[in-house]
Amino acid sequence: MPFGTQVYLLCKPGSEEYFERETLCNLVKKFGGLLSVPLQFLEGESTELLNPEPAPWNRTYRSKAQERKTFLDFGKKLFETSFFDAIPLTSDIGKVQGIAFVLPYSPSLAQKNIHRIYLKNMLLSESAASLLPDWAFFVKCVVNSDELRPTASREDFYEDQSLEKARETLGQCLRDYLIALSEDEPERLRHLINLHHLSMKALAVQDSDFFRLIIDFLPFETTFGRMTLKEFREKNPVIRYVSSHDQYRQISGVAAAQGEAIINGGYVYDSELLERFSELYPVEQVDAAGFAQTFEDITLEERDSVFDFLQVADQVLRPFQCVTDIKKFLPIEMPMLYHLSQEGDFLRSVEHSKEIANKMWSDILNNLSDSYSKEINAYLFFNLRNPLIQKLVKLKDVQLIGRAVQMLYIQALLMGHHPLHVKELSLLTGGLSDLIEGCINNQIRENQ
């Protein structure tokens, strides 16, 4: 079409609204507002310039701060959202320029993010999904390309080698942004990850490229506070973690007191991420039983002095498939450490279900539990550094020792957030009754 050609549009009946001044101006701004040639609306003797400014990425700025503010203002006006940040995008392949706006909320991974794309500064689509890598779920983009090919329906860019290479380049822009944040604005990066951490972890489990990009920046709960995996690795040659909250609660206090750094892998996706990281760095899964192997052994003389105590303890806890041992560990305030194997945890769940199930389900659960080994699957480690345990091992009253061990066992279960079964609730009730009765009898004797 030669330069200067005039095009006349004829209004059909029923389409009058599209020829109203406000509607017409809005449509021109929407589809051609980024064109470099001036678009003027003439009405009588008045003239209105509909695209007074070039696209934000084609302007000159005094500083990065001014550029960022202009980008964010543009995004807020376009999408009616106050974004967390704005990232310049550029790719020589396809001659792509634009802005990636970091979402201020965590989107659903099930819903693919859509972007606003322009071809030679004319709006092509407001719902394009192919321009960025799948892992870039936390941004919404506005981009223009001068060379990428549109699909026949003009709803997106055509999937070819140029688009693939442009996608890789734009993905690298986002990687560079995250790396720059980690070096220059670590607090801002923490804020960003706090906004999107669950979605980032979910995607890192599935996507190898995103996993390598983000894993060092993800935060984990440890026995020395919350820290990123990079911070943890800088202080520890081996990553040690427990796979459940209950296990972590049991050993976190002991580990911290002994200077052992342990990660809580009980949060959703954390264990999977750490297992995957074992391909790149030494990673070790631990539990209370394995951790107890690091405790200080008691001497032969001490072993002889506690022999009778352990005999009684094993006897009273045998009905609960639990054996006992005695070690020395910190903190001194902790009298014991309880460990339940995965099989034991499952069997406890079955037993708890049997107690509340009807006869039919109870029979099914019986058959299920019978298929598992009835061997010992729980361990209770007493701490000989603890003053209470030191007094208990010196007692000669077998009945009193047995009752005290039962109460420590119940306390360990409660500390580990294990539901109490009927037999254990009976122990707790009986122990409390004995305690109250003992206090009453002592008071009576003092008053006589």
From TrEMBL:
<dbReference type="InterPro" id="IPR020568">
    <property type="entry name" value="Ribosomal_Su5_D2-typ_SF"/>
</dbReference>
<keyword id="KW-0547">Nucleotide-binding</keyword>
<protein>
    <submittedName>
        <fullName>Hsp90 domain protein</fullName>
    </submittedName>
</protein>
<dbReference type="InterPro" id="IPR001404">
    <property type="entry name" value="Hsp90_fam"/>
</dbReference>
<comment type="similarity">
    <text>Belongs to the heat shock protein 90 family.</text>
</comment>
<keyword id="KW-0067">ATP-binding</keyword>
<dbReference type="GO" id="GO:0140662">
    <property type="term" value="F:ATP-dependent protein folding chaperone"/>
</dbReference>
<dbReference type="GO" id="GO:0016887">
    <property type="term" value="F:ATP hydrolysis activity"/>
</dbReference>
<feature type="binding site">
    <location>
        <position position="154"/>
    </location>
    <ligand>
        <name>ATP</name>
    </ligand>
</feature>
<dbReference type="Pfam" id="PF00183">
    <property type="entry name" value="HSP90"/>
</dbReference>
<keyword id="KW-0143">Chaperone</keyword>
<dbReference type="GO" id="GO:0005524">
    <property type="term" value="F:ATP binding"/>
</dbReference>
<dbReference type="GO" id="GO:0051082">
    <property type="term" value="F:unfolded protein binding"/>
</dbReference>
